[in-house]
Design brief:
Chain B: Keywords: 2Fe-2S, Iron, Iron-sulfur, Metal-binding, Oxidoreductase. The complex is a heterodimer of chains A (about 300) and B (about 160). With about 300 residues, chain A is an alpha+beta fold. Chain A contains 11 helices and 13 strands. Chain A has 2 domains: about 160 residues, Uridine Diphospho-n-acetylenolpyruvylglucosamine Reductase, domain 3; about 120 residues, 2-Layer Sandwich (Enolase-like, domain 1), CATH 3.30.390. In chain A, strand 12 and strand 13 form a beta hairpin. In chain A, about 50% of the residues are buried. In chain B, helix 2 packs across helix 5. A 5-stranded mixed β-sheet of chain B has the order 2-1-5-3-4, with helices on both faces. In chain B, a hairpin with a 2-residue loop joins strand 1 and strand 2. Chain B starts with a strand and ends with a helix. The chains are: A alpha+beta (about 300), B alpha+beta (about 160). Chains A and B meet through helix 2, strand 3 and helix 5 of A and strand 4 of B.
């Protein structure tokens, strides 16, 4: 196994094209766990990549800024900076980032890493789904943008091709209140048992959702979205409290959209129930944000 | 591969480093700096916490090659010669140490917390902020009460000196 240090982004893309078996490395919070385990008696049989391509020294993935009304967030911006710098612009993603690991992990871990690992439990996924974000994938000679809703194919399998690097995520202009919630056994250092993100888009009459850690891939709750869009159509203007029946039904439909399994972190039945509770709660919070005019469009 | 970087203000070099080797391994096994502890090797316990370019990280999750040209500060670099850092003195005075295995990580992480709060002219961190800052540092002996007392003591002393 070789350790490759590209001098710039173009060289990183060239290395990726020439060595499809190489593993891109950024914060190391997933990749190094695997490498550390590969040498130990508890580790999985060593299946080492042919090389590591270290992207952590490159400036390109570590920036963020406006991109035609969207926010372009470099794939290598650590969660600590997302929390510190983007809480107003990307509230759901920042809220999710705040729940990840520990300060040490947030100093290193990145959204690009979450997307590359593509664990269904990754905390960045539900906010990306709920806000209709796009993932920018770069290869030598091509840059393409894939909607987050099309990115996840199967556990640990995504749209990313072996010659591509995850360059950035693009977040649409913030459309309204966003909320994220996560269930775990502690407030810190915990892999999600399940999670949920919601965005309300008053100006468009739309809503977005994302379910984490309750299915083979991060999911949207389509039926719940359709139901809520219809229910809110006549309610945006009056800004009255939502009837409990609407919150409850939204939670039920979100729970129905989950496709959880039993594992060490929780049973499928518990996860389905908890997704429903998180959906109901985050809807209430987001609607209250909207009523108070806390949304950027209000 | 050869890796050159700075540790505690001193240039260091390690040769024949394996591509997948961690910064922690290089510090402990090649550079004779065993203060940073090796426990979980997956970023769960915080006992290998060091500064990398001024930010605290788990050294077990940094590839050694990623430290090239960078600056690392370990628990060995907190004291000024024989004079303990105020965080270290507070841990001693509060009796925040039992087996001691988690202590180096807690010292570095507490050092960072106080640097960012009282050290930057801010208020001493409240208990919630301390717990959040130390959430990634596991101690299996103390029950954390003495550790929290040590952090409060260090913050108090740092605030008083400012």
């Amino acid at each position: 196994m070789e350790f490759l240090r590209p001098a710039d982004w173009d060289e990183a893309l060239a290395m990726r094209a020439e060595l499809p078996g190489a593993r891109p490395l950024m914060g190391g919070t997933d990749v190094m766990v695997e490498l550390n385990a590969s040498g130990s008696e508890f580790g999985r049989p060593a299946e080492l990549p042919e090389a590591l391509i270290d992207l952590s020294g490159l400036p390109e993935p570590r920036g963020h800024g406006p991109d035609g009304g969207w926010l372009r967030l470099g794939a290598g911006v650590p969660y600590t900076r997302i929390v510190a710098e983007l809480a107003a612009r990307a509230p759901a993603l920042a809220a999710a980032a705040r729940t990840i690991g520990s300060p040490q992990i947030r100093n290193r871990g990145t959204v690009g890493g979450n997307l590359g690992a593509a664990s269904p439990a990754g905390d960045a996924h539900p906010p990306l789904l709920a806000t209709d974000a796009q993932v920018e994938l770069a290869s030598r000679g091509e840059v393409r943008r894939v909607p987050a809703r099309d990115f996840y194919l199967a556990p640990r399998r995504t749209e990313l091709r072996p010659d591509e690097l995850i360059a950035a995520v693009l977040l649409p202009p913030a459309a309204g209140p966003q909320r994220f919630a996560k269930v775990g056994t502690r407030n810190a250092m915990v892999i999600a048992v399940c999670s949920f993100a919601i965005e309300l888009r008053p100006a468009l009459g739309e809503v977005g959702t994302g379910i984490g850690s309750a299915g083979p891939v991060p999911l949207r709750a389509h039926e719940a979205e359709d139901f809520l869009r219809a229910e809110l159509a006549d309610r945006w203007e009056a800004r009255r409290p939502l009837p409990e029946a609407v919150e409850r039904r939204f939670g039920e439909l979100a729970a129905r959209a989950a496709r959880p399994i039993d594992d060490v972190r929780g049973s499928a039945a518990y996860r389905r129930h908890a997704v429903g509770v998180l959906a109901r709660r985050t809807l209430r919070w987001a609607w209250e944000d909207y009523r108070k005019g806390a949304d950027p469009c209000g | 591969m050869r890796v050159s970087f700075e540790v505690n203000g001193r240039p260091v070099r390690a040769d024949d480093v394996w591509a997948g080797e961690s910064l922690l391994y290089v510090l402990r096994e090649r550079l004779g700096l065993p203060g940073s502890k090796n426990a979980c090797e997956q970023g769960e316990c915080g006992s290998c916490t060091v500064y990398l370019d001024g930010e605290t990280v788990c050294a077990c999750l940094v590839a050694a090659g990623q430290a090239e040209g960078r600056s690392v500060r370990t628990v060995e670099g907190l004291a000024d010669g024989e004079a303990l850092d105020p965080v270290q003195s507070a841990f001693v005075d509060a009796g925040a140490v039992q087996c001691g295995f988690c202590t180096p990580g807690l010292l570095v992480q507490t050092h960072d917390l106080l640097r960012r709060t009282v050290g930057a002219g801010g208020q001493p961190p409240g208990d919630d902020e301390v717990r959040e800052a130390l959430a990634g540092n596991l101690c299996r002996c103390t029950g954390y009460e003495q550790i929290l007392a040590a952090v409060r003591l260090a913050a108090e002393r740092a605030g008083g000196a400012a």
